[in-house]
């Protein structure tokens, strides 16, 4: 039963995660804490609390009966309950109110950041940079600066801020039964037998403990119930990027045409971003079948632009038109099927290399000759064939604690596998837009040259949009070069046209790169 519940929660989270798009993940990132383990813990908490509740009611009935039979009546029962009841009313929990927790203490923030550097991800940099001592020193200093400030959880800190008077009142309420015994001992000793005092005291202390436990758990109960509610909430979260209804490509569209793209006054800010816009009033027209190259300094908005084309995000304002229609009107499944993207952010899946390539076209992922052909075009075949298990090799998944493989490949080899996946995608015959965002950044010059050559050979019926910092391979073949600066489109044209303006951004970027090879001047 436990296992089945656990798997049910696990599958629910897994399918919701797979369904969510990027802005939705951003908006709901608090739900990273949502795991089947956590839910199972909360579920068992609720069960424990129900048990405590039943215990408390039974004990109360028992004490009531005892008190009546020993002639102390309901007054004594009321006194017993005073403390727990007062605690209920004075209970102060952060979970009772909507709250946002933000750390503002700079020493606290620094201490947390330094602690974070203890994880494996930073080991190599810390060892090779020889900065272990530095981190320890800074950590000690931040700890000292933090002084007595609590590092506790926000809800604990909140509970401890209750006024002194109220806390004293809560404590005094616990001594009322003792006062009752004392009063009776002095003014009516005949009412008590030693046996009845012992029994009442014993039952009272059990009742108090049970109530205290229950009350301590009230905050947890709320937290647990809210947590459990969230699991059902995540299945209902609608994606921010809404689906459209139009098929793509439209039936009347030529089978052989690539995607045409128009951006009209497009501005874009990332969800939650308070800094400047990633794209600011960009207007672009890309014709069907063109080879377009996007250039610009770091942070100029190139990747953001191609993310809008892949509809990973929607523009904040303005319009993106695909073949004359608003991109939001098309069915997402069609648009994504018509787009092949190759970026430096792509990862390999913890599956075999064959599947890693084959998943470019999932329904043909096991078709060996297609996979091998894609691997050849992506430049992965030569290194894969040298691996002992060839295309069946499963790479070591660093996140899998039970993984016993020790096989890993270089950054450039990974990029070749991802590029092969893109060539595999072409075999669907549905691709009309190819986006390559620095997808060759880790390749050696020969590999990069071959990749671009192979991509150009596949360009029939496709529009190609490349993002690059390296001029040469691509810019000389470009039908259109778009030059970005600080989120704005500052220049467009062919290489020859743009090179005619020595004051232009493109000329400066090109010139700086060319001079690196011809002079020693910085
Ligand atoms: N996920 C994100 N959340 C918030 N801001 C982002 C995010 N990604 C990028 N930005 C910001 O958006 C702006 C444009 O970034 P973008 O990645 O589009 O630039 P780029 O031209 O591709 O840069 P690079 O050449 O370094 O890859 C930058 O100011 C960047 O800091």
UniProtKB/TrEMBL annotation:
The uppermost taxa in this organism's lineage are: Eukaryota, Fungi, Dikarya, Basidiomycota, Agaricomycotina
One Gene Ontology MF term: ATPase-coupled lipid transmembrane transporter activity
Q: What is this protein called?
A: ABC transporter ATP-binding protein
ABC transporter domain residues are: 261-511
Q: What InterPro entries does UniProt report for this protein, alphabetically?
A: AAA+_ATPase, ABC_transporter-like_ATP-bd, P-loop_NTPase, Type_1_exporter
Under Pfam families, the record lists: ABC_tran
* SMART domains from the UniProt entry: AAA
UniProt keyword list? ATP-binding, Nucleotide-binding
């Amino acid at each position: 039963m436990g296992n089945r519940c656990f798997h049910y929660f696990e599958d629910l989270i897994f399918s919701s995660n797979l369904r969510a798009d990027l802005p939705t993940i951003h908006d709901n990132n608090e739900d990273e804490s949502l795991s089947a383990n956590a839910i199972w813990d909360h579920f068992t908490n609720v069960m424990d609390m129900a048990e405590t509740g039943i215990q408390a009611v039974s004990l109360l009935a028992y004490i009531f009966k005892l008190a009546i039979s020993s002639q102390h009546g309901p007054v004594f029962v009321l006194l017993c309950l005073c403390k727990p009841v007062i605690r209920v009313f004075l209970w102060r929990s952060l979970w009772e109110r909507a709250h946002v927790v933000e750390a503002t203490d700079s020493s606290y923030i620094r201490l947390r950041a330094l602690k974070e550097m203890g994880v494996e991800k930073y080991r190599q940099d810390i060892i090779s940079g020889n900065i272990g001592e530095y981190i320890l020193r800074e950590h000690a200093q931040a700890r000292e600066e933090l002084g007595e400030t609590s590092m506790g959880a926000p809800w604990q800190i909140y509970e401890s801020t209750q006024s002194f008077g109220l806390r004293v009142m809560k404590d005094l309420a616990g001594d009322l039964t003792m006062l009752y015994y004392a009063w009776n001992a002095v003014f009516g000793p005949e009412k008590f037998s030693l046996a009845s005092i012992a029994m009442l005291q014993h039952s009272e202390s059990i009742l108090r403990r049970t109530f205290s436990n229950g009350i301590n758990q009230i905050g947890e109960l709320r937290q647990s119930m809210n947590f459990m509610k969230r699991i059902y909430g995540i299945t209902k979260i609608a994606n921010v990027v809404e689906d459209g209804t139009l098929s793509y490509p439209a039936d009347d569209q030529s089978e052989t045409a690539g995607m045409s793209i128009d951006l009209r006054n497009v501005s874009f800010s990332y969800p939650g971003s308070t800094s400047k816009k990633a794209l600011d009033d960009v207007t672009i027209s890309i014709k069907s079948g063109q080879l377009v190259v996007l250039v610009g300094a770091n942070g100029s908005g190139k990747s953001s632009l191609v993310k809008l084309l892949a509809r990973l995000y929607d523009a904040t304002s303005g319009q993106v038109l695909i073949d004359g229609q608003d991109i939001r009107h098309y069915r997402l499944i069609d648009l994504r099927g018509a787009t092949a993207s190759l970026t430096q952010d792509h990862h390999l899946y913890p599956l075999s290399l064959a599947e890693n390539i084959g998943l470019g076209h999932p329904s043909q992922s096991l078709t060996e000759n297609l996979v091998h052909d894609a691997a050849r075009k992506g430049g992965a075949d030569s290194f894969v064939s040298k691996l002992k298990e060839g295309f069946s090799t499963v790479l070591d998944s660093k996140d899998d604690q039970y993984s016993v493989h020790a096989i890993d490949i270089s950054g450039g080899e990974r990029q070749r596998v991802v590029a092969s996946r893109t060539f595999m995608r072409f075999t669907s015959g549905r691709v009309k837009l190819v986006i390559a965002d620095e997808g060759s950044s880790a390749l050696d010059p020969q590999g990069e040259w071959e990749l671009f050559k192979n991509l150009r050979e596949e360009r029939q019926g496709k529009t190609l949009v490349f993002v690059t910092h390296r001029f040469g391979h691509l810019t000389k073949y470009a039908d259109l070069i778009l030059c970005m600066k600080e989120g704005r489109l500052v220049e467009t044209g062919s290489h020859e046209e743009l090179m005619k303006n020595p004051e232009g951004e493109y000329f400066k970027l090109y010139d700086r790169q060319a001079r690196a090879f011809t002079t020693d001047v910085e």
